[in-house]
Amino acid sequence: MTNAYLSDAPLGAYRTLSALVLASNSPRRRDLLGSLGLALEICPSNAPEPPPLPLEEPCDYAKRMARMKTLDVAVLYPECAVLGADTIVVLPASEAAPAQILGKPADEADALRMLTLLSGRAHQVVTGCCLALPGQEEPLCFAEVTEVAMRASTREELAAYIATGEPADKAGAYAIQGLGAFLVERVCGSYTNVVGLPVAECARHLLDKGLIAAR
User: Fold this and answer.
1) Does residue 3 surpass a pLDDT of 80?
2) 86 noted as active-site residue
3) Annotated catalytic residue, options 86, 110, 169, 208
């Protein structure tokens, strides 16, 4: 497990009042929180990512994964607030198939399978978040849902995108903020949630808990 301390937080609307640890190695989540002006310590979680339980709702699954990751790191930082998150892509049920939860692709063939399923359809991006606070036995867990409509893309376009390597570590095999932007027609809800973290909702909870304040 590696730690990286961001001692020189960029200017932003907020400042940290209490030590805050991000239980994720995602550069996207790090940058999104950093855009608020927050100084963070990064400590990725080593918690496993089991599949959803039978009949488990996507929001419940995302929150459960976020909770596991957060508590995995919180034991190492008992005096700090720890924030963890987990993002999944949910393809709604159709006449042909039940609802599907899409995580990160296992390989290029799996990425092509996922992107083919998403092509020309709307889906939901769900990010579960968990905030563990010193001295509090139960962490705060919440989830944000954003609807994303995808353009109909050809197999050749999808293959060319996969060849860039970008889909490899992305839920649903695409990055809206990166080269995969051409895949997306419309977003309804939090854009940053699709990137990997609902920034406005996280800021609200951090403010409510007295962990950050406006500069």
Assistant:
1) no
2) yes
3) 86
